[in-house]
Amino acid sequence: MKREEYIQEIKRLKKERDAIILAHYYTDNDLQEIADYVGDSYYLSKVAREAKEQVIVFCGVKFMGESAKILNPHKTVLLPDDVADCPMAHMVTPQQIKQVRQEHEDLAVVCYINSTAQIKAESDVCVTSANALNIVKTLKQSKIFFVPDQHLGTYVASKVPEKEFIFNDGYCHIHRSIQKEAVLREKALRPEAQVLVHPECPSEIVDLADYVGSTTGIIDYVAKSQADSFIVCTEIGILYELKKNNPNKNFYFVGEKKECADMKRITLSKLYEALRDMKYEVVLEEAERKAAEEALLAMHR
Ligand code: 13P
Ligand code: SF4
């Protein structure tokens, strides 16, 4: 089928199935264009939680589909690709969490939404890059075990010095591959450009930032900024929304193309097949879902 035919068929099937399509900013342009809602991880989990439609098709990686199912369990949640998964979501184990809980009192386990349902079930509260700072600040516990992302954890810790942090060693390979020298080179070429950094980047990149925030945070910052040039330190998919909203502004990405292979597994044809064949359904064991729901609801409160 041609692109236009896929689009037509997706629209037809969406109505027939009573479905809503959600897409993350890191997915392909075509998916961002056809989705009913596009956003960062926090916004999309909120939309999924409140969705009235019978079917939620999540164009994103596995933890996003799982979070939708955890928060809205009576809906059918579909992932167009059954392999698309965030490697960082698996970089901590329930055993590690249990061990740290045993060793420390007055401890909150804070888990980044980029984590498996099993990890959420072991945690006290979930956070995203959009709300991690505010949520951690309001926790009553004095110690924080931040999983799985060491970089987001380090960023939050730098802003909440009153708490003691225990870190895990997880990371996003896309954000970790952004090199300080490459940002400095780009900055030397365009001294007027503002540096925008996702907090999954290592601290040496965060230290160079004019703005640090989630994908939505970066998009909102650009919309309000007087500047017309930006060095963007995150995944390339965000460029679609940035260009759409700011056709006259200039965006520069550093180093080799920063492309999340897992996000890019999702295509228009797979979205079509997901709606046609009602696949791949997210299924969770109920006890685990319930425990994970508590951590996600603590974030949405
Ligand atoms: P946000 O869109 O929430 O900033 O998340 C970035 C990310 O890496 C999602 O996988
Ligand atoms: Fe995971 Fe990084 Fe891809 Fe986001 S960009 S899904 S954190 S690997």
Automatic annotation (TrEMBL):
Main EC class the enzyme belongs to: transferase
A GO cellular-component term linked to this record: cytosol
Matching Gene3D superfamilies: NadA-like
Keywords: 4Fe-4S, Iron, Iron-sulfur, Metal-binding, Pyridine nucleotide biosynthesis, Transferase
Gene from which the chain derives: nadA
Pathway linked to the protein: Cofactor biosynthesis; NAD(+) biosynthesis; quinolinate from iminoaspartate: step 1/1
Enzyme Commission (EC) number: 2.5.1.72
GO MF: 4 iron, 4 sulfur cluster binding; metal ion binding; quinolinate synthetase A activity
Protein's recorded name: Quinolinate synthase
